[in-house]
Amino acid sequence: MNKRRLFKAAACAAAFAPLFFASCVDDSYDLSKDIDMTVTIGGNLSIPGSGTEEFSLDDIMDLEYKENPEDSVIRTDADGNYRLLKEESSDPTDVDIEPVIIDEPECEETITTLNFDTPAAVSGEVEAQVEDVEMNFTFTKDDVTTDVTEVSAADVDFKAYLTLSFEPISHNVDEITLKSGFTIEMQMEGQTQADNMVYELTDLDNYRVKDGAPQTIEFINDQTIRAGETLRVPVRFLRIQNFPDGQGLYALGHFRMRTHVIANGTATTTDLNEGNIQVNLFNNAEVPAITLEQVEGKFDPEVDITIDPVTVNDVPDFLNDNENNLDLKNPYIKLTMSNGTPIDVNLTADIIRMKDGVQDDAPIRLGSTTADRDSIILYAAKGDAPTVSTYYLSREAMPEVAQEGNHTYNIVMGEDIYRLVRTIPDEIRLENIEAKALDQTYTVPLGQDGAHYVVNTDYQINAPLQFGQDLLITYKDTIDDWHSDMEDITISKAVVEMDAINGIPLNFSVDAQAIDVNGNVYPNVTVTPVQGTIAPGLKLLNGDASAASESKLILEITCESGDMKDLDGLIISFNADKKNMDGRPELQNATLNKGMTLQLKNIRVRIENGVTVDMN
Prior knowledge:
Layout: E1 3-4, H1 11-20, E2 38-41, E3 45-50, E4 55-56, H2 57-61, E5 74-76, E6 82-89, E7 93-97, E8 101-102, E9 106-108, E10 110-118, E11 125-141, E12 148-168, E13 175-178, E14 183-188, E15 197-201, E16 207-209, E17 216-219, E18 223-226, E19 231-241, E20 248-251, E21 254-270, E22 275-286, E23 290-291, E24 294-299, E25 310-311, H3 317-320, E26 332-339, E27 345-355, E28 358-359, E29 364-366, E30 376-378, E31 387-394, E32 408-412, H4 415-420, E33 427-437, E34 442-445, E35 451-464, E36 473-479, H5 483-486, E37 489-502, E38 507-516, E39 525-531, E40 533-534, E41 549-559, E42 567-577, H6 585-588, E43 597-614
Parallel strand pairs: 1-36, 31-32
Antiparallel strand pairs: 2-43, 3-43, 4-43, 5-6, 6-35, 7-35, 8-23, 9-11, 10-22, 11-21, 12-19, 12-22, 12-24, 13-18, 13-21, 14-17, 14-21, 15-19, 16-17, 20-21, 24-34, 25-33, 26-31, 26-35, 27-28, 27-29, 27-30, 27-33, 36-42, 37-41, 37-43, 38-40, 38-42, 39-41
């Protein structure tokens, strides 16, 4: 409680008595012996008036006692308007997506027998046809990260070689030649369109993509294969897309791509003897480990956001009383989230209110599991720049929020926000936080090391002290230290009168209790507000002082036993509300302001029924 000494009480009353009786005293007597020096002065006595300095809302809120006002939960803005403001930030949240690497693709070597029939020995070329000779290679991986849930396309960058070699069977053959126009076609098993694999040829002097057949490699020149050697056709793969059913990420954690390679064309050899000459043609492929450099698909990485509880401390007494009802007009929670990932993330959580160490109200559900107007979305980064998304969760609509820029939204939560701060809690927690990627397709670079991103979350409770009609605030202040001036007098009834100059837009009703020298409520002493209401006023920082109201207060102090010798002061209760202000919108909608003050002037104490003065 604040302690204020509004006046130096009735020392002057005690001073009257020695002067009044001076002529009746014989100096030869020892007044300390056998004579009762207790004197009663009858009638009503008035103690000269006094007053207080203006005490502002800063005084009431105790902000002046803080070395740094920013340490207080109650702050003022540049215009002097008060707000309850508390902020908390989470530690940065690391979001990782593991790479997708196909380590050992399986290739199936195909052996085709070429028959070079010669009815007689020849010294020229003999042909054999290669017709739909098929080989297969399969990319498989059964421990793909579950951070990736669907792959619709993937950028890759690897060089593979389609290989051809031969082995004579029936006769010695030194070399065979695959003639110009020889083709190798690549097809993904089950494909329904011809652009599943995007690639380029790196030996453009000898090979080209066949016109009108984007998956077919055509030989530009004859290619000769000598015995014991291998012809290697280089192909650089750039992208895999449009996966047929059963291919790609066909199940969570399981990837497969099976490809057919089909060869057609003419093979020749020379200088053969008479007979059926047979050669085995081997079709194979050399494929390195494959990294999905960039994946277009759906993702479900772990986004583990943890926000420390917002502790609401150093709250002024007049806001912290459990009997209060803070009908704040439009308090709000501001969530500011920086998303460095290329994925939109949907956030849901429970807002928990804690008072005296326990949860004292039902959780408030934040966000939505479906992408609707109440969803909290952390929008994806644009390139290397994180995207900042800001949400104002307010009691009433905030039209000004739309003016703040992109990815700034207002979600009206009505009475849920009112319940959160109807009395000031000790803590506000965000618990059961779930952050899930939206069920949409995104493009994410992975490479050899996977993807690494950061998400940051700031959490702010911001409640301008603009009160609504259901406001009820009780603030208690103590006026004490009277006894040092009244220790030699005893009174049975006193009337305290004062003028209240109020620049605060609240109705005040005043009640009081008397206290003794030990600070305890004085037994058998009653304080009755004869006139105990203070009208609202409106005095703003650097504003017009004449806007304050003036009200007269009268408090009557009586004692059933007729003895208040130990009276030391009053505990005054100021009960504030905003009732009956409909005709004054400037008061109804006003926010508490640093310039608002309350001053008690012309404080007068009238002692009725006389005083008893102890002159011993």
